[in-house]
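User: structure tokens for this one?
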Amino acid sequence: MGIYAPEEHRRMKLFGVFGLDTGNECLLRGDTPIALPPKPFAVLRYLVEHPGRLITHDELLEALWPETYVQPQVLRTYMLELRKALEDDAGQPRFIQTVPKRGYRFVAGVTESANGTKPSAKTAPEIAPQLSAGVGIVNRHQELDSLTAHFALAAAGTRQFAFITGEAGIGKTALVEALCSQLKSGQTTTVAHGQCVEGLGRKEQYYPVTEALGQLCASAEGEKACRILARMAPDWLASIGREAADAISGQPAPRERMPGDLCAALEELAAEKALVLIFEDLQWADDSTLHLLSALARRRAQAKLMVVATFRPQQIAADHPLRELKQDLRMRRLCAELTLAPLARTAVRDLISRELNQESLPAGLAAFVHRRSEGNPLFVIAILEHLMAQEYLTRETGGSQWRWVQSGPTEEMEAGVPEGLAQMIEAEIARLGEQEQRMLEGASLMHIAFTTWAVAAALELDAVETEEAFQELAQRLYFVQRAGQDELPDGSRSTFYVFSHGLYREVLWQRQTEAKRARRHNRIAERLARFFAGREGKVAREMAMHYEAAGNWPSAIASLRNAARHALGRQAYAEAAELLDHALRLTERLRETEREEAVGAISKDIQHARHVTAMLMGQEMLAFTKV
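Assistant:
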């Protein structure tokens, strides 16, 4: 019987040319056992049983040495042994990736055999590609692992369809590039891209498909691809300027490209070697391309085929055929969807560290960039470039090394919108209708949050129609989200929304002239006064903000004085003093003939506020001594 259990009782975890025999606690390369001491084997087993996931030092120590204190440095020794046994390179890991200061990740695809099937000692192609460190992405390893798992199924003969969705700049393309980097490293896969282009969808049928076919015919598999297309889909071959059927057989080529012909040809091409088709920005695809992809996803023939498609769900209407395609495929369990969320603050910090190529960052920089970018990777990089251009971030040289430092405190950094981002945002806004753009401009007059009644007031629109328009807008625009309802003094309700990206709000605010903004701010303040007639003190501070933004200094000062009186009535003495100080500063904006009278009136208010404060504080002190 030897040292091994019977084949039918052995369980084997396979990765690359190796197998982990968990029943006999042995590492195999083909049929050859590789000696490993018990603890290194236990470390390897734990990593292999949790592939693709970051295993922290603490988790590994707790799992293998519970209730025993062990120096973390011991893990380094075991990793050296494991890398030597696996012939793995720490710089370009095929199996164990070191995540600096955090832990380790087992990055190879793992399959399991219950009948003791051994790994081939030959360098045969693996079902899953070797995972790289995910160059170019931050905090997307879970999504990358999911795509890798889908590819493993495709490479085994079960076709796969995966949607990657998210807002502009969220990292869809970076994730696709990371996947392609893995697939190319395996050299067992053919990859072809098709890029959908805004505007071309209505002019040219199958544009992204023909682009992908052109790449296929120019790839290492190009000669084979051309032969298959010439035989099974000659009209598609002719569409990319290659030798068509009439040049081969003397027969005229078909007039119309038939989707079924191409599907069959792609399946034959993917019969032996895995084929991955990537289509980006599918929200701009023509209907014919979407019908072709639908057919490709539904066909039952076995093929080592995977389709990956990216799109921005916020830019497709409710009746867009892409939305219907995705919902139908998901209902039939013929596709998967990976939705990319904004990066958390820790991930933003990692991204900044990578971009600046330094671990230690200036104090407050990561928090500032996260707040300004809302976790959008494209925005993070654009903001960093903006800070460098404005010299808020500068290089400091020390000896033979240099590092990035801040030229001043974070709170002094100019916010601004980076020029490249402003152009991108402006292009998105320009795709909207003129009235929709106008309403969003009105919304930008408030802060991040805004109410529909205020927009209606600013633009002199009907409140109900404005409410309905924003309800529809929020369904289409990812940067506008519904946040709740506000009850007005007359008992009616008005929905309020938020800009999910403050940069969009700034661009919308800046595209209005000063005169236009002033007129709109005045209207909002006047509407507030009508809403709260007789109780203006409750909203006087908000009214003052709008009057000040409009440059209506007399009305702003009057509203601040009213707000101060209201604060005194609530015994908010510090707030009243702050409001009156603000009003006093605004008198410098008045004409000289008006200034003296305004200063005198505010000075009397200040004296009154001090008198009331002193009197009430004296009464409180008297009451306290009596107690």
